[in-house]
Amino acid sequence: MILPPATLGMLGGGQLGRFFVAAAHEMGYKVWVLDPDPHSPAGLIADRHLKAGYDDFAALDALADACAAVTTEFENVPSDTLDYLAKFIPVRPGAAAVAVCQNRIVEKHFLRDNGLPHGPFAVITSDADVAAAADNLFPAILKVARFGYDGKGQARVANAAEALHAFHQFKGEPCVLEQMLTLDYEVSVVLARDESGAVKCFPTVENRHTGGILDVSIAPARASACLRDSAQEYAEHIAGRLGFVGTLAVEFFVSRGELIVNEMAPRPHNSGHHTIDACVTSQYEQQVRALCGLPLDEARQHSASVMVNLLGELWFEGGEPQGRYREPDWSILHAVPGLKLHLYGKHHARHGRKMGHFTVIGAEPADVLEKALAARAAIGIRDE
């Protein structure tokens, strides 16, 4: 066990890292953050912020010297960085598990090889691969294999000609061509797994996206108990096959009533933000516990909840890019009973940037949903 007042390391300085730092501080730990952004939200509250790249070996050596263990808040930290740090201190999750989640091609092959439900796909690395794609794969979505998130690095394509054009737009980056499925809705499972293989699953969450970015999360999901339990079982199986240690999120499509694994995130997840306010233990505290070898705590949800993302367009009058820049009127949200507002302290708002979220909690799921959607509209979030 790694006990307070030990120092922990965090690779990445976004809002997920910020919540980790806050959870670790409450538990008595110190945290160093490595992130090149001088305005990093996690770095602003860390005990020390190393403003350096993830391939800066002087910074990595400093982190290894000062920290008892290291974790990450996003999947695109180079695996070489994780491997290097693992020579000196525990790194959780490990590089091998993260490598599966950070490359869509590897991820799809992992799902296929482990008998997990996934949609039809083709790997695209050349024009010839596009030409060879089966006609029944279309319409499809072409996704870059690396560094795509929140709808970036993706294109909807109706046929091979459109797929070829999109592939060229992505400058020939390796891609995955995924068949567009009939979508009922989307769900996700966030869990924590420790080094001994013990797992604690948070209840399955129902998610709604707008423009490829998570908009609203409803927990627990409005799905059958059988589907919710099956999603948790799949997520646990994935964590075990990865040998994962830490907090993991698995996103699913529900298509014609069946679960389809969409992707994995080897870190806390947006759809788990509600655990801060609605669960006995947050996903971030579980991340600290798994990293430090502490027993995982209870993941029980004590209140129905709805989480709403707050994106940068709220900071622009009328929600338009050319609108006047101003701070939203937070008194509107603070007036709502049971609403918990979380702002990330980001230096500057821009359209599509996650600036904060709020979670409404309560006893009755229907009432919580109605209150959250009313608050969403009142603060100025518009439906597309």
3D architecture notes:
This protein is of the alpha+beta class and 384 residues long. Strand 11 (205-210) and strand 12 form a beta hairpin. The protein is globular. Helix 1 packs across helix 11. The protein has helices spanning 15-26, 41-45, 57-66, 79-86, 95-101, 104-113, 127-132, 160-169, 225-242, 275-278, 283-292, 331-334, 365-378, and strands spanning 7-11, 30-34, 48-50, 69-72, 121-124, 140-144, 154-157, 175-179, 185-193, 199-201, 205-210, 213-219, 246-255, 258-265, 304-311, 339-343, 354-362. Strands 9, 10, 11, 12, 13, 14, 15, 16 and 17 form a nine-stranded antiparallel beta sheet that branches. It has a four-stranded parallel beta sheet with strand order 3-2-1-4, sandwiched between helices. The N and C termini lie far apart (49 Å). The chain contains 13 helices and 17 strands. Helix content is 31%, strand content 26%. The protein has three domains: 7-91, Rossmann fold; 120-179, Dna Ligase, domain 1; 185-378, 2-Layer Sandwich (D-amino Acid Aminotransferase, Chain A, domain 1). The longest helix has 18 residues, at 225-242.
